Amino acid sequence: MIGPDAGADLYPQEHMLMTHNTNTPHPDSDTLTAASGNDAKKQLAGLLKHFVENVPRVTHALLISRDGLSLVDSEIHKDWADKWAATLGSLASLSENIPGPGGGRAALRLALIERGDALIFVSIAGTSAVFPNQPGNTAGMVDTVLAVIAKPDADAGTVGFEMGQLVDRFAPYMVAPVRSA
C-alpha cells in the first residue's frame, strides 16, 4: 500500500511485467455469483487486485461512487483512495457534461489523463446495490466509476481494453451493468 507520506513515489513496489491472455476467463468466473454485503465487497476488491496484478504497468484500481466516495480498491492507503475518489468522481461527472460536437452530452466511456508520473483512466462501471449505506445512493443503489492508475509508459490501449473486460466482470454486482462492446 502507499500512503500520503510516500512522497512523490507512486510506485513503491514494482510489478513484474506479465502477459495477460484476455481469452482466458477470470479464475473465479465459473463460480462468481452476485454475493451481498461484505462478501460482495471482498469479491469486487479481489477483482480489482487481480486486475492490478495482471495488467502490465497498472499500479492501482478503485471502484468509486459517482459522487466521489471510495467504495473498494486494490489495497490503496485510505487517504490516497479518498483523495483519488473525490477527484476522479468529479472528473467522470465533468467528462459527461462536456458538450460534444453536436452540442449534446453523452455517457462517458473512457477518460484518460496523461501526466509525467502516471496515466489515469476513468470509466463508468454501472449501478450497484452492493453499497446500500453509502451517501448519495438512490433507492439503495450507487452509480459507480472505475478508476485506474498506471505508470506513464503503460500501453493505454491495453489498459483501456482490460478495463472494459473488468467492467464486464462487475456485471453480477450491478443492477444496471455497463456493456463494454
Identify low-pLDDT runs: 1-33
Shape: globular
Instruction: Report strand %.
Output: 15-25%
Question: Whole-number radius of gyration?
Answer: 16 Å
Q: Please, how many helices?
A: 3
Task: List the secondary-structure elements in sequence, H or E.
Answer: HEEHEEEHE
Could you give the count of β-strands?
6
- Quote the average pLDDT: 81
Helical residues, percent: 25-40%
Q: Helix- and strand-based class?
A: alpha+beta
Task: Kindly report how far apart the N and C termini lie.
Answer: 33 Å
The biggest sheet, with number of strands, parallel, antiparallel or mixed sense and barrel status, is: 6 strands, antiparallel
Descriptors for this entry?
single chain; 181 residues; alpha+beta; 6-stranded antiparallel sheet; 6 strands; disordered N terminus
Written overview of the protein:
- The protein has 181 residues and is an alpha+beta fold.
- Helices cover 29% and strands 22% of the residues.
- It contains three helices and six strands; from the N terminus they run αββαβββαβ.
- The protein has helices at 37-54, 78-97, 156-169; strands at 58-65, 70-73, 111-114, 119-128, 142-150, 174-177.
- Strands 1, 2, 3, 4, 5 and 6 form a six-stranded antiparallel β-sheet that branches.
- The longest helix has 20 residues, at 78-97.
- The chain is globular, with a radius of gyration of 16 Å.
- Mean pLDDT is 81; it is low at 1-33.
Topology:
Blueprint: H1 37-54, E1 58-65, E2 70-73, H2 78-97, E3 111-114, E4 119-128, E5 142-150, H3 156-169, E6 174-177
Antiparallel strand pairs: 1-2, 1-5, 3-4, 4-5, 4-6
